[in-house]
Q: What sequence folds into this?
């Protein structure tokens, strides 16, 4: 055997190849993860950059052309065969591939579609006039054109070049009035509606208990009348706000028509991207990102923001963590510290490990049947009979969703806690007992604090899995659009019976249930990146707590 062969066998038997193999696998996995996140971030965050509005002269036939106004949304190259198949016309000769542009032309209420494919070889000219305006509306999507005039109660206020300067203060005014109307609706008017519903349930409760005396009903009617009078005053104030919002109208000239009336009550933003400098575009870019994370969705979730989904995701994960941590820790402490080790305990551990592999949709079916129908229905019959047949807790909501995910993730916490308890030296327990502490005191003041880093590790894994789950939530509480957050100013302030929005389900809904696929595609990437960011922030918070506890008890472990 040659020296080279001997050296190879020695190297092979040393286990070094497996170390390099594992290191390579970890490196490849890291590259894939970072690449995937970079792809999601690039495609999602690029959506918020204020792109220039193009004015394209497009040749539709040999003799005719038309003007197309819009923003470039994407490009692709297709083969002549695919072009002929999709366009229904023969492909141009002499071209190996045909470039097509996807242009967002907007104006959905006036055009067949708000996205249009243009063949690059049919484009005669492209320009970016600074006067082109993108108007973001509350409905019907974006509107592209040139601002020609601003009207106030039908009276001309400004036109031509002066119209843009007169427009911005009126948009700010409409935003302020719209916010006031929203606060009035969800504040004072919402409180009155909540109290009226309470009086209705109070009357129903008296009827069920055969205590609906004339005196009791008269008191309820008096309070209802007081609330009705207060409601009438607030409704007049709300109507006045709506009338003030509807005061202004702008006139827009498009590529196909002039003098199109756009009420400012439907306008969210109006910008001239072609007139912005790079610094101004950067400021608008961060403004668009903030709007995305701080506002509510609209237009079937294809526009607007995702704040309700962020709130619902974080709140559900926090509730799940509060529920799963004590339950999982208690179960692990019993199995490790108190239970007699034998065949039964081994079977229980096998069952716990197998529960981690059960498909999540099975947990959703269990949560729907056990938590929603059984427990929720029982709670309604016992505590809310006056509200029946309309369910209070006997319907999917954030409480049942959190409990379902707590059951789904509890095996992770149990296993992690048991591992932490098993690593604590026996001498630590014996030292505590020798000093006169009881077994419970030893467990509570010595063992559990030292095992807390492992407990936090279990919580981290539970959060990472629960935050991304979607299938069970579709059965136990998540919805496409929740008109109200689970938290408001009405007692008891935290309404765990309400349905909620979730970032994971929002991705599914926008990506696969949206009526406007082209408008939804960038939002899918943006929401996916945001979900990853939320999970990272939640995990980092718990990791910092774990590291602090690990450093605190490192001396005791040594």
A:
């Amino acid at each position: 055997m040659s020296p080279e062969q001997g050296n190879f066998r020695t190297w092979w038997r040393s286990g070094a190849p497996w170390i390099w193999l594992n290191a390579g696998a970890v490196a490849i996995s890291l590259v894939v993860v970072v690449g995937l996140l970079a792809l999601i971030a690039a495609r999602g965050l690029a959506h918020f950059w204020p792109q220039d509005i193009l004015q394209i002269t497009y040749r539709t036939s040999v003799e005719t052309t038309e003007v197309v106004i819009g923003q470039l949304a994407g490009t692709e190259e297709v083969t002549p065969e695919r072009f002929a198949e999709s366009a229904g016309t023969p492909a141009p000769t002499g071209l190996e591939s045909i470039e097509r542009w996807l242009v967002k032309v907007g104006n959905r209420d006036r055009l067949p579609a708000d996205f249009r494919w243009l063949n690059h070889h049919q484009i005669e000219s492209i320009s970016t006039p600074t006067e082109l305006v993108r108007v973001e509306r509350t409905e019907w999507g974006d509107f592209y054109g040139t601002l020609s005039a601003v009207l106030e109660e039908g009276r001309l206020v400004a036109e031509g070049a002066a119209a843009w300067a007169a427009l911005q203060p009126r948009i700010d005014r409409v935003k302020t009035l719209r916010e006031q109307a929203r606060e009035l609706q969800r504040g004072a008017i919402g409180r009155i509606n909540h109290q009226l519903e309470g009086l209705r349930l109070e009357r129903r409760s008296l009827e069920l208990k055969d205590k609906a005396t004339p005196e009791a009903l008269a008191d309820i009617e008096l309070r209802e009348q007081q609330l009705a009078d207060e409601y009438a005053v607030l409704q007049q104030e709300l109507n006045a706000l709506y009338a003030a919002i509807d005061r202004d109208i702008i006139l827009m000239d498009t590529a196909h028509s002039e003098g199109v009336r756009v009420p400012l009550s439907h306008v969210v933003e109006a910008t001239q991207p072609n007139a912005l400098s790079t610094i101004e575009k950067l400021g608008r870019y961060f403004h668009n990102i903030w709007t995305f994370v701080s506002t509510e969705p609209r237009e079937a979730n294809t526009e607007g923001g995702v704040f309700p989904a962020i709130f619902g995701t974080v709140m559900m994960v926090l509730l799940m963590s509060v529920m799963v941590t004590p339950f999982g820790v208690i179960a692990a402490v019993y199995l490790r510290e108190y239970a007699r080790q034998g065949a039964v305990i081994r079977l229980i551990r096998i069952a716990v490990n197998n529960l981690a592999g059960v498909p999540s949709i099975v947990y959703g079916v269990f949560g729907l049947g056990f938590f929603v129908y059984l427990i929720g229905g029982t709670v309604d019959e016992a505590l809310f009979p006056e509200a029946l047949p309309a369910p209070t807790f006997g319907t999917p909501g954030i409480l049942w969703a959190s409990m379902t995910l707590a059951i789904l993730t509890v095996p992770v916490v149990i296993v992690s806690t048991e591992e932490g308890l098993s690593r604590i030296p026996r001498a630590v327990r014996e030292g505590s007992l020798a000093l006169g502490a009881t077994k419970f005191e030893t467990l509570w003041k010595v063992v559990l604090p030292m095992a807390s880093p492992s407990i936090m590790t279990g919580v981290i894994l539970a959060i990472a899995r629960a935050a991304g789950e979607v299938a069970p939530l579709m059965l136990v509480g998540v919805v496409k659009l929740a008109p109200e957050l689970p938290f408001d100013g009405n007692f008891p302030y935290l309404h765990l019976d309400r349905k909620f929005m979730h970032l994971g389900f929002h991705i599914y809904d926008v990506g696969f249930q949206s009526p406007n696929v082209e408008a939804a595609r960038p939002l899918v990437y943006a929401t996916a990146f945001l979900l990853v960011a939320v999970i990272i922030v939640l995990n980092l918070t718990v990791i910092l707590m774990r590291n602090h506890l690990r450093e605190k008890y490192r001396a005791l472990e040594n």
Remarks:
- The mean pLDDT is 88.
- The chain is about 60% helix and 15% strand.
- The first helix runs from residue 3 to 13.
- The two ends are 48 Å apart (CA to CA).
